[in-house]
Amino acid sequence: MLKILSPLRILAALAALALAMASHAAEVSGSGLTLGPADSKSVLVVHASNSVQVFRGVLEDFVRLNPAVRLEYTELSTRELYSDTVARAGQTPASRTGPDLVISSAMDLQTKLVNDGYAQMHISPETRALPGWANWRDEVFSIGTDPIVMVYNTQKLDPARVPRTRRELLSLLQAPDQPLAGQISTYDVQGSGIGYLAATQDTRLDSMAGALLAAFGRNGVTTHESTEDALDKLERGEITLAYNLLESYTRHRIDQGAPLAIIYPQDYTLMLSRSAIIPKQAPRGDLGATFLDYLLSPRGQEMLAQQSGMRPVGASVIPAAGVRPVALGVGLLVYLDTLKKRHFMDVWRAAVFPPK
User: Fold this and answer.
1) What is the rounded distance in angstroms from the CA atom of residue 66 to the CA atom of residue 291?
2) What is 94-142 written as a DSSP string?
3) How many CB atoms lie within 10 A of CB 146?
4) Per residue in 278-308, pLDDT tens?
């Protein structure tokens, strides 16, 4: 026999359903996202440089697989991720706060955190399956890779003049008609961890890096602190070309209809990692490890590729011609030496902001 509910019971059922939905609803802020039940005792805190907009699908998939977990995600700059981890190191076990996993595109700063004792070890089948360059000391791990590219506005640059190498870019900057004067942007290495990493890798790999920086300065280069900032300028037509941007964010903009195109420099294309650590002071390092293993699992890698545009770690083991993957390890610490960093900054400022 069909049971008919009274109006009061129907209202009660609807209220319970609304409450359940509210407790699992996503809470979005300008630089954060919270998913999962509000009353959960299993709270996973993730701090990352990955854009909330780009990374959201990955976070939602993890919560679908772990419905009892409440996930609190905050987007921060690479510098903030590093300094916050160091600052929290002095906390007592009883007062520990902060993230259970830190994900950053500044793999040199992540490596320094490990080298200085701010990360904890994690060993699992997923971490053991990583190639050697993507796992250092079982404390810092590549979760995906991202080529560093040049990007231009297709409505502002003649296709015949698009530079395919750094030497061609230098020639364009030196052209008599100055097509890029006031129309080019590069990372501000003083405020961006990934910008500093990319610029120092250029210096290590390219003998003409200094000449290119000087040409930037002569053309009135502007600086950006993030790929998103540069892409905004490109979309608005404020600049024509940006140097050293993350491919994944650019792909996302292009898919949304932005009039942009990517240049993979044929002399070499840097392949950087988004790397993850479990901080030594993580309140729930076990949950951080669970999320890390998810990201490294076949499903997590597929979701990262589909949702965030990053390339799976396994797909980067055999690089294409001209691609230079950057390995995790002590080699990344060279330009974090205080004296070497100060010298690089002085040279960079003198070239990019020459006296008028």
Assistant:
1) 10
2) GG--S-SEEEES-HHHHHHHHHTT-EE----HHHHTS-GGGEETTTEEE
3) 25
4) 999 999 999 999 999 999 999 999 999 998 8
- pLDDT tens profile 191-223: 888 899 999 999 999 999 999 999 999 999 999
| Cβ partners under 8 Å of residue 277, min gap 6 | 85, 101, 102, 110, 113, 114, 118, 119, 139, 140, 141
Angle between helices 78-87 and 193-205 (to 10 degrees): 110
Dihedral over Cα of 109, 111, 117, 120: its sign? positive
- What's the predicted TM-score (pTM) here? 0.81
- 71 bridge partner residues: 35, 44
Rounded CA gap, 326 and 197, in Å? 10
Side chain identity, residue 93: P
What stretches of the chain show up as alpha helix (H) in DSSP? Answer: 7-24, 52-65, 78-87, 107-115, 125-128, 166-173, 193-205, 209-218, 227-236, 247-255, 285-296, 298-303, 338-352
